[in-house]
Task: inverse folding
């Protein structure tokens, strides 16, 4: 459903500014020519994300963080979620790939993947209007490279009123814009693994108020885990041109991104020990920190496309994000008002591939369970093709997922006007704005069930199953061309073709008199959703299964009698509207030049996307929701904090309380480690404390961040036994630290990331162990403008568990887990000019 809203043509004439913007165009620092490694006192930078006007953080009633370009090179991670792990208050579950992550803030639930309550922005506008579209989370279409100037994050506060669908906060990735002349070229390579990358960036003033910046990257290689093929392939290029006037500026910018990454998803492991102290072990031939489930021998498989025609899927495409964007922004002073307008159109598409073990067991168990007594197994591909499997080696029945992201186009326009008025002895700042956005969701989901071995090292091979009577039950290792294992075949075999349109007027007032500032803001989001969904799960005679000769050999095999198809002639209609009001109010008191205190209360809404359109949740004839209240959710937050900054010392501490409701479907696991889909209907609350600090003394610098969180499921309407439990994957305490020292030509330091234990599932039985990761970095400047760098992520090769896919230690001792990468060393050479 390709709809380019007519209002865009009109708004182009006015240009624009962002949902998170700087009052001063020079607020975002950059120095393309410098190596940016010198230690300096904390800069008094205007924070611009999720607020009405850019201000010094000590003058704002918000909790916020900034990561500058100089610090990004020291983090030893390349993914967006990996960067966000270093921001207090944010929980980012990732294996350092973009597109398979779960990100949340302040103890709000991680019920699903993506970032439901936290909006990811690029240069102040959302990458995707909804951060948790299934198989298309926002970070799949965003990359970090040398064009990045800084990352700004606001937790809670006015994020709920200065952006849509961001009640928990906003993280904004801000690009360089060429204020200073200079460039960078950097080549990097993995040490001990195959991944090569080249980055470049260059910007400069051009005279007469003009300036530009351009940059990007390209990478290729297998990556830090053994998968048997180049899992990383692609990159991006970005550019912008700015014309500065005496009273404002105009900027045009564009981006082209096409990047593939492997999916470091769940991986089979042995799980023993006790629920309080589980022990994770590798299966024979496997290393969970250095292997992934992908293999070139199992990557290609047959199926049907969205028109029910035979096709071939290729898992080697991995997580592929394509983002072609063009934007226009402007800001001018007009009759005492600062008027800004920002527009961006993003042509977004891609592909999502994943393979997960559903049942992991010795070969005789797999044969009996899926083929019956006397069934036999033999290799269907790889170097052992045709060889019978007669021993007890471990095999897996897998679910293979392919999501074709046909069109996820995003169009956004944000127009606002601000003015500062002299009122009594103080200043009153008023802001009014109009936000308009359209988000397309056109995608097709396909699933297949197959059997494979667990050879490891990127050599997993497909396995065929034959009945005792000699009837082949699989075809090239595929057992069913649909879900098939204990779940009805057509389930989740779906095509979405939807359009979301959003209109949100908003406004704010802020009065500052002396040391006191009081402000409030309000936003009214109105949305309309239209389109259709093709899925047999809606019933009404919608057929979802048939027999097709997929391999065109003239015979329909047993596996080919189990092909999930779409009911092309019976689409389910989607047609509903929603609206909600968000508001925020806060007070800030600047006690002294280095010290301020603040307090704030906020209520923010978040519209739900395609995840609520399950069977039973939608009237397929009228398109109305069965329960209109599921169209959006509300997050309430209260916070109070203290901020101190003097000379080389900065310290921010914030206490918070947050609550929300959740209506969703959560992929979980039972006590046997088997994947289950759970309907979630709950309310949650969390309270805690965030700390962020920085100390700089001579050549020494130390950055610290820590979060203590006490989160609970207040009420579960589906399973009351969960009431009072801690939401899964939310630790009580987490921290980040980065000590470093400058020694002439050397910069030495390390990044530490740690977390206490959390629960694997909401039942609060099985604990996920905590961890502390140590990731040192070294930068050496042998000559002017030349920097040699070495980054070692997880240098002690610790096992850092992101998630355990079991509710308890399983009786069979086998389940799945997702972990962070093991020791990963990368060397780089940078030249600045």
Result:
């Amino acid at each position: 459903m390709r709809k380019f809203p007519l209002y865009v043509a009109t708004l182009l004439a006015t240009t624009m500014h962002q949902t998170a913007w700087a009052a001063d165009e020079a607020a975002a620092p950059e120095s393309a020519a410098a190596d940016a490694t010198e230690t300096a006192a904390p800069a008094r930078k205007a924070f611009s994300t999720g607020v009405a006007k850019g201000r010094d953080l000590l003058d704002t009633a918000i909790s916020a963080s900034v990561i500058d370009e100089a610090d990004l090179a020291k983090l030893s991670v390349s993914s967006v979620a990996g960067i966000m792990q270093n921001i207090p208050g944010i929980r980012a579950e990732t294996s350092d790939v973009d597109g398979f992550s779960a990100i949340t803030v302040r103890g709000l639930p991680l019920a699903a993947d993506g970032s439901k309550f936290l909006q990811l922005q690029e240069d102040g506008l959302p990458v995707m209007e909804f951060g948790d579209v299934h198989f298309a989370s926002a970070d799949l279409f965003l990359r970090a490279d040398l064009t990045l100037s800084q990352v700004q994050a606001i937790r809670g506060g006015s994020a709920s009123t200065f952006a849509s669908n961001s009640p928990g906060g906003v993280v904004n990735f801000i690009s360089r814009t060429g204020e200073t002349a200079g460039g960078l070229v950097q080549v990097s390579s993995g040490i001990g693994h195959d991944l090569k990358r080249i980055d470049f960036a260059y910007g400069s003033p051009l005279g007469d108020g003009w300036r530009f910046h351009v940059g990007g990257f390209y990478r290729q290689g297998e990556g830090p885990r053994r998968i048997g093929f180049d899992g990383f392939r692609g990159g991006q290029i970005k550019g912008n041109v700015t014309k500065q006037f005496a009273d404002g500026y105009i900027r045009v910018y564009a981006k082209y991104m096409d990047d593939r990454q492997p999916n470091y998803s769940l991986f089979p492991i042995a799980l023993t020990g006790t629920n309080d102290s589980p022990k994770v072990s590798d299966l024979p031939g496997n290393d969970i920190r250095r292997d992934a489930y992908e293999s070139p021998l199992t990557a290609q498989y047959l199926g049907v496309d969205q028109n029910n025609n035979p096709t071939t899927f290729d898992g080697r495409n991995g997580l592929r994000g394509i983002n072609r964007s063009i934007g226009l922004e402007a800001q001018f002073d007009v009759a005492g008002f600062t008027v800004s307008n920002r527009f961006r159109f993003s042509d977004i598409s891609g592909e999502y591939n994943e393979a997960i073990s559903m049942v992991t067991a010795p070969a005789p168990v797999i044969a009996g369970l899926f083929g019956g007594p006397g069934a036999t197994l033999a290799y269907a591909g790889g170097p052992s093709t045709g060889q019978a499997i007669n021993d007890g080696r471990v095999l897996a029945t897998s679910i293979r997922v392919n999501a074709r992201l046909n069109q996820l186009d995003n169009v956004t326009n944000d127009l606002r006007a601000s003015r500062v008025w002299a009122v009594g002895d103080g200043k009153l700042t008023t802001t009014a704005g109009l936000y308009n956005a359209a988000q397309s969701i056109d995608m097709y989901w396909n699933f297949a069930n197959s059997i494979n071995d667990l050879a490891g090292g990127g050599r997993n091979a497909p396995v065929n199953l034959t009945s005792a009577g000699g009837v082949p039950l699989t075809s090239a290792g595929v057992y069913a061309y649909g879900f098939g294992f204990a779940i009805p075949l057509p389930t989740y075999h779906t095509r979405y073709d939807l359009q979301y349109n959003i209109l949100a007027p908003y406004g704010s007032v802020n009065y500052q008199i002396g040391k006191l500032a009081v402000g409030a803001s309000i936003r009214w989001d109105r949305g309309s959703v239209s389109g259709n969904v093709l899925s047999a799960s809606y019933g009404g005679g919608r057929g979802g299964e048939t027999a097709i000769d997929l391999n065109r050999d003239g015979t329909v095999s047993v596996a080919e009698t189990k092909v999930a198809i779409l009911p092309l002639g019976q689409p389910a209609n989607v047609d509903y509207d929603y609206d909600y009001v968000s508001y925020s109010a806060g007070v800030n008191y600047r006690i002294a030049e280095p010290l301020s205190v603040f307090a704030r209360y906020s209520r923010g809404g978040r519209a739900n996307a395609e995840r609520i359109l399950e069977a039973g949740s939608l009237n397929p004839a009228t398109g109305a929701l069965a329960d209109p209240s599921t169209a959006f959710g509300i997050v309430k937050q209260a916070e109070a904090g203290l901020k101190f900054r003097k000379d080389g010392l900065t310290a921010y501490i914030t206490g918070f309380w947050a609550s929300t409701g959740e209506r969703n479907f959560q992929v979980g696991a039972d006590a046997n480690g088997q994947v289950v889909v759970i309907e979630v209907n709950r309310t949650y609350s969390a309270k805690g404390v965030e700390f962020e600090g920085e100390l700089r003394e001579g050549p020494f610098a130390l950055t610290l961040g820590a979060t203590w969180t006490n989160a609970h499921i207040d009420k579960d309407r589906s399973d009351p036994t969960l009431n009072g439990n801690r939401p899964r994957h939310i630790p009580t305490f987490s921290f980040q630290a980065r000590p470093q020292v400058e020694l002439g030509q050397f910069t030495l330091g390390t990044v530490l990331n740690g977390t206490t234990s959390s629960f694997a599932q909401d039942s609060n039985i099985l604990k996920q162990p905590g961890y502390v990761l140590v990731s040192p970095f070294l930068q050496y400047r042998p000559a002017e403008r030349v920097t040699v760098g070495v980054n070692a992520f997880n240098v002690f090769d610790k096992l850092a568990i992101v998630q355990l896919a079991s509710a308890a230690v399983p009786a069979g001792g086998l389940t799945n887990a997702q972990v962070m990468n093991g020791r990963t060393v990368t060397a780089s050479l940078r030249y600045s000019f």
